[in-house]
Amino acid sequence: MRRNFRCSLLAVVLAFGTTVFVGADVAETVGKYRASFEKRMNAELDEHGKEARNLRLNYIAALKKLKGELGRAENLKGAAQVLAEIEIIEDGEETKELPADTDYRFKRVREKWERGLAEIRSARNKKLKTTVDLYFKALDTEKRRLTRVGEIKEALVIEEEEKRVRNLPEVKAMVNIPEPGRPAVDTLEDLALASRGAKASTSSGRDADLIIDGKTKHDKQKGYAWAINPCTFTVDLGTVHAINKVRILLFDLDNRRYSYRVFVSEDGASWDQVRSNPRARGGWQEIGLEDKKLQFIRVNGLSNTVNRNFHVVEIEAYGSQ
Asked: I need a surface site. Which of 109, 171, 214, 233 has the fewest CB within 10 A?
């Protein structure tokens, strides 16, 4: 498949490179040029659309299997939650954040599906970007040629085509594509980053700076901050922001469970509890807030079913400046 894509890209490059505007109406030639570009874009979108549809069918099949397992185990609440998810997916609606008490098997099936979607989007984004870059390069080359020979009006036609492509939804969607394994986020920026002036500390552990470095890759020995329970991890955003969502990534390479609480504060003196989870599995913990003004985020680590430590990979905060 990769080899076929490279061959296709070579064909695109040749098609763009051999198109000459000399002696032809620029608008007409741009139309032909655009048709070649859009044919390639549509082919790539169709390819990844098919992959997404197949992934969706596999997700539904996995949910139906899990529903049967939960039913046989007389976990009626879990079976009902899975059935509701099946109906949402089949109706084409947007999924919602799962409750904290959702069965861990359901969470894993959902996480696998979301990870697959992220991988498909990432692969699609790379291919589309390559095609768009080739198109822009070809347009810019021709625009420069027309400008050099004094055909300013014709050069402006090329410039309008560049503007049109930049405003295409497919091109705009290439911005802020999440990395595989990372939950999709909206257009808000992560404010809990050292690069943005945030600072992190922990009460009785080490490597607190890792929770605000923007990196989520970790293994059993590194990539996370840790402290002995009970403990605290605090992030100072540097100034007060209106925050819509906080995300916390806990170590997730086995089946351990964590007990924790999350607090936020505007002044570092008065704290509001926004989450308490006594048996959380590792992975992303998402907390929705409604433009809550805060500067500090604190995670109180209480317990871990495997050892005495609490492990935080990353803390993120999304909102306006």
From this structure: 214
Based on the number of CB atoms within 10 Å of its own CB, is 89 exposed (0-12), middle (13-18) or buried (19 or more)? middle
pLDDT at position 24 is 53
At residue 150, what are phi and psi to the nearest 5 degrees? 85, 10
Is residue 178 one of the residues assigned to a domain?
A: no
- 42 and 122 assigned to the same domain: yes
Verify that 37 and 168 share a domain, yes or no. Answer: yes
Burial class (CB in 10 A: 0-12, 13-18, 19+), 2: exposed
> Which of 22-26, 82-86, 107-111 is the least confident region?
22-26
Instruction: State which residues form the domain around 264.
Output: 189-320
The verdict on 17 and 160 lying in the same domain is: yes
DSSP single-letter state for residue 187: S
pTM above 0.70, yes or no: no
* Helices 26-72 and 2-17: angle between axes, nearest 10 degrees: 160
Instruction: Sort strands 231-250 and 199-202 into parallel, antiparallel or unpaired.
Output: antiparallel
Encoding tokens for residue 5?
Answer: 């894509």
